[in-house]
Amino acid sequence: MLKPDLYLSSIFEITPDILKDMGVVALILDVDNTLREYRGKVPYDGVEEWIAKMREAGIQLIVASNNFTRSIQPFALTLDLNYVAMSLKPLPFGLRRALKILNIDRDKVAVVGDQVFTDIFGGKLNGFKTILVEPFVREKGYFWKIKRLFEKPFISRYDKGDKK
């Protein structure tokens, strides 16, 4: 339940061909440290181009974040993406709302994020495929250091680029 189907360095390593091999036609994307800096306002360099490449390949995209609407809505609108704020990952409610918006069978959807206990566990609880990416920037503060410390033993067992 805590092992992703695929572990990569960043979203930029996710390609339409990889998704096709996985049987994925839609992605539910985490926001903070996956598409932007934690609580940032703008996407990381290259995110808009990556999204355009996914759309060109026919991949449907939606963002799902545990953050509040006031933070997620402007960011999602900047990228012209649907969104689910306060998704409460790993609980199933927000990811199920995202699936309903996508209107696709769950076995054709992957959750992409940088956290094992929210993104990956939440995706697995919902029966989605999962892709773990490394955070662009390590967060500061004790909460994040402790959270990442608990993730470390699990991540150390994953092989980058290895499909389950």
Description:
The chain has 164 residues and is α/β, with parallel strands linked by helices. Helices cover 38% and strands 15% of the residues. It has six helices and six strands, in the order βαβαβαβαβαβα. The chain has helices at 16-22, 47-56, 69-78, 92-102, 116-125, 142-155; strands at 6-8, 26-29, 60-64, 82-84, 109-113, 129-133. Strands 1-6-5-2-3-4 form a six-stranded parallel beta sheet, with helices on both faces. The longest helix has 14 residues, at 142-155.
Short description:
The chain is 38% helix and 15% strand.
Rg (CA only): 14 Å
Percentage of helical residues?
25-40%
Strand order of the largest sheet: 1-6-5-2-3-4
Give the number of helices. Answer: 6
| CATH architecture annotation name | 3-Layer(aba) Sandwich
Average residue-wise pLDDT: 90
The fold-level CATH name is Rossmann fold
Strand content: 15-25%
Superfamily (CATH H level) name: HAD superfamily/HAD-like
**Major beta sheet, specifics?**
6 strands, parallel
